[in-house]
Amino acid sequence: MAALTIQNARDGSTFTQGPQDTLLRAALRAGLGLAHECNAGGCGACKFELLEGDIETLWPDAPGLSARDRQRGRHLACQCRALTPLTIKAQTGAEYVPPTPPTRQTARLVATRDVTADIREFRFVASEHARFAPGQFAMLDLPGLGSSRAYSVSNTANGQGEWHFQIRRVANGRGTQVLFDELQPGDTVGLDGPYGTAWLRTESPRDIVCVAGGSGLAPMASIARGAAEAGLLAERKLTFFYGARLPSDVCGEDMLRALPGFGQQIRYIPVVSMPGDDGAWTGRTGFVHEAIAGALPSALADHEFYFAGPPPMTQALQELLMVTHGVPFEQIHFDRFF
């Protein structure tokens, strides 16, 4: 497909869509702040109106569009490609401008390790330096699949081209089936990134709170590692909450223990929602968002919050922080995944 020019009628910006790109990826690759979150059709943040031209829709039934959106002729930039030059109307903002424009490259699987019974770490090495902000994600093009899969990065930027992902096996999920059962060390995949808006804000003077559930461990581990590498924890504290269903699902403490300041500047607080009746689990119980207010030594509005996990957890956290405790939206950072 030849490169095609897209104009955003809302702010007058233009960008070019190259081969393989969706409208969203093309805009972000050009350094434009097109509104987005998940890049996978689930959140609906990248809705746009088509004013002129023709498009191809990759996932017509993507859940990010409601029935009303479809009736009003709205589309998802992450699920559309231009077939002709376009004029669109889409939300943009400085907060969506990528700190590092995403690029495509090939990555080779070099190692794996099991984190829990259903979370495995996959380590890839790409041909170029690994450039991303802590907390971002990348799109992987896996063998035999017709669409990319979004996975959060757990390490930090490096000159060795290493991208680490901690991924939970999804029942009947084709992407994780390929990763867990078919991909072998030495195999290559396509890697496009970085993406995501919930990266570490190094300029914030506030103490840091990370909240992870399930494979949301990966971006929160990256945030914690990035904060330590940037020297932020010399004067700030980082509290890391991990929400698990069962005691056997609890993980992440070993990664934090490897960071300077663990036990003083860094606290790890696991919370289990189904501890069992045998009394073996002696830590905090319940849902992870319920433990936050009582565990922090000062008002929640005094902190910078980062979180990643299943939608019910992220929704509960938004309500807790913004509605109950009045935390400004600018201090809350997360990417929605479904």
Describe the overall structure.
With 338 residues, this protein is of the alpha/beta class. Helices cover 18% and strands 31% of the residues. The chain contains 7 helices and 19 strands. The strands form 4 sheets. It has a 6-stranded antiparallel β-sheet with strand order 11-10-13-8-9-12. A 6-stranded parallel β-sheet has the order 17-16-15-14-18-19, with helices on both faces. The radius of gyration is 20 Å and the shape is globular.
Note the main attributes of this structure.
Ubiquitin-like (UB roll), six-stranded antiparallel sheet, six-stranded parallel sheet, 18% helix, Rossmann fold, 338 residues, 3 domains, Elongation Factor Tu (Ef-tu), domain 3, 19 strands, alpha/beta
What is shown here, in short?
By secondary structure, the protein is an alpha/beta fold. It is 18% helix and 31% strand.
